[in-house]
Amino acid sequence: MKLGRLAFVALLTVVILAATLAAQGEDYAYPYRDPYVATVTTAIVNAERLRPRLKREIVHVPALPGRNGLPGLQGRGTLSVAFYRQKRPARLVFILSGLGSNPYFGLATYYAILFHNRGAHVVVLPSPMTWNFALAASRSGVPGYAPADARDLYAAMQQILSVIKTRYAVKIEGIDFMGASLGALEGAYVSVIDAEEGKIGIDRYLLVNPPIDLAYALTKIDEWHALGTKFGAERAKGIVAKALAIVESFSKDRRDDPAIFDRVARDFGAFTTEELQFLIAEDLQAALPELVYVTQVVRGQSTRVAGKNQVRKRLQDVKDVTLAGYREDIALPVWRLQAADPLTAGSLSAILDRLRGNPRVHVMHNADDFLADRRSIDELKEALGDHMTLYPHGGHLGNAWYPKNKEFVLRFLGR
Amino acid sequence: MISRRRFLATSGAAVLPPPLVARAQSQGKVWRVGILATANPRVYDDSIDELHKLGYVRDQNLTLDDRTAEGNADRLPTLAAELVRASVDVIIAGGTEASVRAARQATASIPIVIVAIDYDPVAQGYGASLARPGGNVTGVFLQQIELTAKRMELLREAFPKLTRVAILWDPSATDQFRAADAAARSLGIRVQSLEVRNPDGLRGAFATAAKERADAVFVVTTAVFFRERAHLSKLAIASRRPAVYALREFAEAGGLMSYGTNLPAMFRRAAVYVDKILKGARAGDLPMEQPTKFELVINLKTAKALGLTISQSVLLRADQVIE
User: Fold this and answer.
1) pTM value?
2) Which residues share a beta bridge with A93?
């Protein structure tokens, strides 16, 4: 009886999801069916060549005590965020992008321009997985465990609000949050904290392509990064060089023209799937050496890298650390002090009930996002219902620039 | 990535003295030096030449990664991140403050050698002190603000009847504008502000200076102005206005007079910092240096074209007169 009921529910879910996808699929003409090609099109998505060009303030926020005088990092212990302000009272949007993203370029700056053009103040945060956040705002100094990172973010966001209100005398009429990729997962945890404590009072959260099962996502990235070994150093270097040359060739093009993305997709279409997977993993790991360098200084560790007096060796060693190495050798021993199974405890599924009950949260996801397995995406959709918009295509953030997605984002947050 | 890179180094093996070749080849490591330029990658040629003299030979023990924002400072953060991703051993961030800011945002670990010509690195927080900067930034810098006042005095000395000066500046050099403005006012000279936001505005700025009868034009130092120096000199002559600049390259490009430091010498000095860092010194332990020698260059051909007579006292002090 019970099994029969479960089967019925499962069947019903599949039917509903299929119907939803079909409905969205009918008028969703996103052009790329290969999720990897779709994903790499975002490589050119940033604020360059968007108009109007905006004045961006770099705001330095004093963060954790004692972090400004660490050996070799003297004077670096302030958290730097990008601030785009309005001259009149307005809502403020915090934007937090994915693993290792910084506030100065990339997807977050693209959204910053969009929101600012719609009349909002915008603050772009650095990912907790950057050296700057690890040094200035991460209490453990070993970011990557979403519940702890969200707690650090929450404290940093309060500091940021205090600084910009005092220094720039901005009037803020309400606060929203947009997170993408890992930033979406961290934002989900921020929503839980703010719902409990209300120290910021965030009105709306738009969470785009959050990894659902973090262990699954990290395993994929590790696997794809290991393809570099299979390719060999020279080929791997050549793949990255070719990809950067493609991105560079678009440096003078507008970033909101679908025809440009067609050319990007065509150029990246020359790569094999494995090469694209490797490129994506490479990109996600790009910020890691700097992060590890800082982590080692903050923790005084020498687990993976040379001791503190061997500067040259130390710099060399951090270049070789992979995401898997960071997690296993450096981070997990610290994270396990907070949770027995940090990867499970720090996943989206761990707070699904809290998200379901929070009408302020909306998730955008893609059915073909390769950093989440399809079953998890379906379960998330089932859990969130109307609070999640699921697109049939787009890979991982690959449709961020697509007009229909852009319209949705602006409809949700840009009013 | 590689195809667009302009490797600036002259491949030196053929012309390098044998002992240096031997020294370079004996080092197994191939060092990777990143260059982050706002607008003028050629100014780094002197750094590269000096590195060559210090025993670094491209494709033997040196690889150069060159990134240029082509005057668009907004691109610098992306380019700096590319250098970090390329795992360079040291970054030379010369000229504008925007370049060191971008490099510093991108990395806490990779040493950054600056050649600062339009900002004070300690005042801007890039080092704790000149003697011991700490962190990962060191290098050479020019106290442009003090020189700005000195340059204004020279302009007045060269043209004693000067009563109204137009100051040409862009938003990257607000401090220099303020210093020039204060210096002019202290000398009783009225100021006309000519702010331009891109090179397209230069022609209009000089037209405005002529229309409002400025006696001379004071040009602050920026990366874009440096790149446009020949154009600037032509506009100054066309508008029949004497103009003063900060670097000899302007006078050599047809500008009337310059007073400032020797830029190639600063970039050569940066290479010495790079060498020390590659040999194991910590950037934060290397004191920042300021040039102590300044040079006055006067272009008499331009003076003649403008029909001007420069006072004898100034001419006598010139380190070089271009005739």
Assistant:
1) 0.82
2) A122, A176
